[in-house]
Amino acid sequence: MSKQHVDLLIIGAGVSGIGMACHLKRECPGKSFTILERRKSLGGTWDLFRYPGIRSDSDMYTFGYNFRPWTSGKVLADGPSIKRYVSDTAAENDIEKHIRYGVAVTHAEWSATDKCWTLTAVKEATGEILTFTASFLIGCTGYYNYDAGYKPDFPGEDSFKGQIVHPQHWPEHLDYAGKRVVVIGSGATAITLVPTMAQEAEHVTMLQRSPSYLMPLPSNDKLAMFFQRMLPAKSAYRLTRARNVAVARFLYNRSRKNPGIMRRLMLGLVRRQLDGKADMSHFSPSYNPWDQRLCVVKDGDLFGAIRSGKASVVTDHIESFTEQGIRLKSGEELAADIIIPATGLDIQMLGGMDLVVDGQPVVLRDKIIYKNVMVEGVPNAGMIFGYTNISWTLKVDIAAEYLCRLLNHMDAHGNRVCVPRDTGDSRGEGTVMGGLDSGYIRRADDRLPRQGSHGPWKVTQDYVADVKTLRFGPIEDGYLEFDGIRPVENTAPRSGFLRPLKSALFGS
């Protein structure tokens, strides 16, 4: 058994982990750190998923890091391009030498006596047990189980004579040319798979229990490309990010305040795309916009596949699988050679590792989140958790900046331990995922930390507000306890509205 100590341990080498490491190198250059990554390569989601057409469902100008411009004209990039972007970012910042691959963390325990975390991990290739210690722990594991996605137990599944392929475990050389394919689901994965597979398959059917809101988006941004031709790269990037953040915020806020108007607008866009080739009942959700995430349709490709007759949408419930396909509760049977259950993610926090503080297991379901970056009562620990209503990485950047500010503040004041403490009964309604009501979030209610009712305990999903808090707000806000002492709120003048707004839109 080997034992190694660093100032910080980062769990996960995906978009969040690499972003956190880059900010550490830039803002806390004296800190030693190690990234523990279970997989054999960096990239996280973009290394795991290999299904046809895998791409971002957020625009790349806001999904890219704020310190490294995304320079391609593509708004929605394919998976390999995103992984290459993350890899190049790591290489430019000399991050890879800090990564330990093939290491699965199983247990993390904080000791108030030693004032450090001890992590137990296993080197999966050999079974060797490893021990790491660190003064600070940062979880960058995302929020889903990499081993398996969510898949219901379908009646009669064993009787199906064709192939069943889950998107999270896509075979490298799956041959679907000329085949009949049924994709079960209506989320981002299904919306991507259906038009891509329809190019070669005989026919692809998207089978959904209920519709999702769909938003067509061109894959190339002509205005961004114009900015790139006319302006310096950094200026073009900031201007494009500013526009995209503003548009995304407007659409989200309008959807929450005027759901009826936004519903009519979104369904009108879909109706024009379909051009009468499909029944709008398959594209008219029963809930309001942004109660669940919107699904982006790249270049309207799904609608094009439907108009051409290569793809279709069926809204029904599954009665059972059969030898030849799927029998629906309506009595209809869908013939299939390949069935793809794109039925969602299995939520898992902190990569599934056990978290213990001074001998007491931490049950995240019983905890509230602080500034959506730390967990109440858990010392010297951060958790990078991106946005659900806008690009994930926008939150990664400002959360990483905040943690670097916190670390530098502790060093400047000689503090060794920092822990958020709830000063009253701040527990509110909902989870760290904000106001989303998707099925995969409801299924994970027993695993997700909660949000509070006010102040830093409330999850806003508001980028501009979070910039003001995380980038400019005082570290000593009356809720953080340092070495057992909770300083009163720092009453130094805070920046006004314009500076955080400018910073949010144009970068730090």
Q: Would you mind describing this structure in some detail?
A:
The protein is α/β, with parallel strands linked by helices and 508 residues long. The protein contains 13 helices and 25 strands. The strands form seven sheets. Strands 1, 2, 3, 4, 5, 6, 17, 18 and 21 form a nine-stranded mixed beta sheet that branches. Strands 7-16-8-9-12 form a five-stranded parallel beta sheet. Helix 5 packs across helix 9 (301-308). The chain is globular. The model has no long low-confidence stretch (mean pLDDT 91).
Which helices and strands appear, and what pairs or packs with what?
Layout: E1 2-11, H1 15-27, E2 33-37, H2 45-48, H3 60-63, H4 79-92, E3 99-101, E4 103-111, E5 116-123, E6 128-139, E7 163-164, E8 180-184, H5 188-198, E9 203-208, E10 214-217, H6 222-230, H7 233-257, H8 259-274, E11 295-298, H9 301-308, E12 311-315, E13 318-321, E14 325-328, E15 333-335, E16 338-341, E17 354-357, E18 360-361, E19 369-370, E20 374-375, E21 381-383, H10 392-413, E22 418-420, E23 427-431, H11 439-443, E24 450-452, H12 463-472, E25 480-482, H13 498-506
Parallel strand pairs: 1-2, 1-6, 2-3, 4-17, 6-21, 7-16, 8-9, 8-16, 9-12, 10-11
Antiparallel strand pairs: 4-5, 5-6, 13-14, 14-15, 17-18, 19-20, 22-25, 23-24
**SSE-based structural type:** alpha/beta
Poorly predicted spans: none
State the helical fraction.
25-40%
Q: What is the molecular shape?
A: globular
| CA distance, first residue to last residue | 43 Å
Q: What gyration radius follows from the Cα positions, in whole Å?
A: 23 Å
How many beta-strand runs? 25
Strand content: 15-25%
What is the mean predicted local confidence, pLDDT? 91
Count of runs of 4 or more consecutive helical residues: 13
Main beta sheet: 9 strands, mixed
